[in-house]
Design goal:
Length: 259
């Protein structure tokens, strides 16, 4: 039995998140359709994260067990010939049989894209949140540093979440500008339902003056969702990277695979 780890990129505009749903097109269902055509059977796949409708991924990891002997180097080409144009496999490697794309992860990095211009961009529709008012990235980076640490992030979790433990560790947060695009980057050991979108919305509300500067520590302390900012639209959110411990990566020919 082989355990394959697939690296996937996708544009989430046409999908209702990753998880299979009845009467909705999802990333998982579409990917499994392609896998079935290549491997000759519908394999169970394990995704590294749940995603909301309209959320994108620069790197999304899927692990799946198979007895098929197709070489790893041939898998991306074969799958890409059977996947839609808004989804692409960039890598395939063998990992230990007990590796799990979701439960083996020790951290994730998300980016949120804000198109900071008064005019919409026809080439970025559904790929960034457009906000037409000035953004001070240096100020927002200072504000975002208050997210860093181990806290109960209940104030940054949307209602409807079934997760009871809201404690998470954020290791990095910053806001930078690339011409008209403002990018909020955040890394942590895990994230709650809509957590990054609420973080982004809170920073936007601070920029707007709706939330006072320096309020993030108090919002975290109060653990009240009503104190945090609005949930930013899904279109700006990208899963950028997932981190795994090197001890779980299989060594071949003296090389340790890492991310």
């Amino acid at each position: 039995m082989r355990n394959l780890l697939i690296t996937l990129r996708f544009d989430g505009r046409n999908y209702h998140g990753f998880q299979v749903q009845e009467n909705a097109v999802t990333v998982c269902q579409t990917f499994q359709d392609g896998v079935e055509r290549v491997f000759g059977e519908r394999l169970a796949v394990k995704g590294c994260s749940r995603t909301d409708a309209g959320v994108h991924a620069n790197r999304y990891y899927i692990s799946m067990l198979t007895e098929n002997a197709i070489p790893c180097e041939r898998v991306p080409v074969a799958l890409n010939a059977n996947l839609p144009r808004d989804m692409v496999v960039t890598d395939c490697r063998e990992v230990p049989e007990d590796f799990h794309a979701r439960y083996s992860a020790i951290g994730k990095r998300y980016v949120y894209h804000i198109l900071n211009t008064q005019h919409r961009d026809p080439f970025l529709q559904g790929l960034a949140f457009r906000y037409g008012y000035p953004i001070d990235c240096e100020m927002l980076t200072c504000e975002s540093h208050d997210f860093v640490g181990t806290y109960d992030f209940s104030a940054f979790c949307a209602s409807g979440s079934s997760v009871e433990d809201h404690v998470r560790t954020i290791t990095h947060a910053e806001v930078r500008r690339e011409r008209d695009m403002v990018i909020f980057t955040v890394c942590g050991d895990g994230f709650l339902y809509n957590m990054v979108r609420i973080m982004a919305g809170t920073l936007i509300d601070i920029s707007r003056g709706v939330i006072s500067h320096g309020s993030i520590p108090d919002i975290i302390r109060l653990r009240d969702r009503g104190q945090a900012g609005a949930t930013a639209p899904a279109c700006g959110l990208y899963l950028d990277e997932v981190f795994y411990p090197l001890s779980l990566m299989e060594k071949k020919n003296g090389k340790t695979y890492e991310f």
